[in-house]
Specification:
A seven-stranded parallel sheet has the order 3-2-1-4-5-6-7, sandwiched between helices. β4, α4 and β5 form a beta-alpha-beta unit. By secondary structure, it is of the alpha/beta class. The chain contains nine helices and seven strands, in the order βαβαβαβαβααβαααβ. Helices cover about 50% and strands about 15% of the residues.
């Protein structure tokens, strides 16, 4: 019996969709029936691979180079997606960066870059889609935060602050857009075994595994499955929530 396509007929944008968690999300949305546009900044080859994989599923796909920290580029991408696909229903704000350093060594540039990408990037795309979702009285916005937004993390004052801002943004957006049938939620992963994490020092991985009550790192697909649910009508009465995907790392 074929699986139900819970996102059949929907169109989604996934920022930072060429690698890691973003790639897994883009592919999972496509598996569930959505046409998907991804943004990338430097990984053009990886982005094209994602497009090819989505098209192989029989879905439409688009990869656009866009700096999420740039307000005008967010507006442009949203307009291009609607022109290409004819509609837009889902926004997944996934793109993010780390510039880890203790506060007494952190530079202004390292602070500004993380805030601009991880927090302002979410605002830029939410601002671009909000009038559209409001007018059509439908939309799903999922912001990828972090458990470190909730607990703080040594050496990550910039990242923890940015992701905490994402949570505040999520809750405020949920209040503003709820009357227009728009759901806004945040997903807060723990340490997820992306290619970047695989290259991290073994001590970092061991510490995260030690914190997890399940005794393992999460996989990108663990996040993607939840995001697909939040993008579907199965989550129609959930909004303003922050849901951890961390194997109990936060407990």
């Amino acid at each position: 019996m074929p699986c139900e396509k819970i996102l059949e007929g929907r169109v989604a944008i996934v920022t930072g969709g060429s690698r890691g968690i973003g790639r897994a999300i883009a592919l999972e949305l496509a598996r569930n029936g959505a046409d998907v546009a991804i943004s990338y900044l430097r990984s053009e080859e990886k982005a094209r691979e994602v497009v090819s994989q989505i098209e192989a599923m029989g879905r439409r796909a688009l990869a656009l180079r866009a700096d999420v920290a740039n307000f005008a580029e967010a507006q442009r991408m949203v307009a291009e997606v609607i022109e290409e696909f004819g509609r837009l229903d889902i926004l997944v704000n996934n793109a993010g960066i780390n510039r880890d350093r203790v506060i007494w060594k952190m530079t202004e540039e390292e602070w500004d870059e993380v805030i601009a990408t991880d927090l302002k990037g979410c605002f830029n795309y939410a601002r671009a889609v909000a009038p559209i979702f409001r007018e059509q009285r439908y939309g799903k916005i999922i912001n990828i935060a972090s458990i470190n937004a909730l607990r703080g993390k040594f050496g990550q004052t910039n990242y923890s602050a940015a992701k905490a801002g994402v949570i505040g943004l999520t809750k405020a957006l949920a209040k503003e857009l709820g009357r227009y049938n728009v759901n806004v939620n945040a997903v807060a992963p723990g340490l997820i075994e992306t290619d970047m994490v695989k290259k991290a020092p073994e001590s970092v991985r061991e510490m995260a595994i030690g914190e997890s009550v399940l005794g393992r790192l999460g996989q990108p697909e663990d996040v993607a499955h939840l995001v697909a649910f939040l993008c579907s009508e199965r989550s129609r009465h959930i909004t303003g929530e922050v849901i951890k995907v961390d194997g109990g790392q936060y407990i």
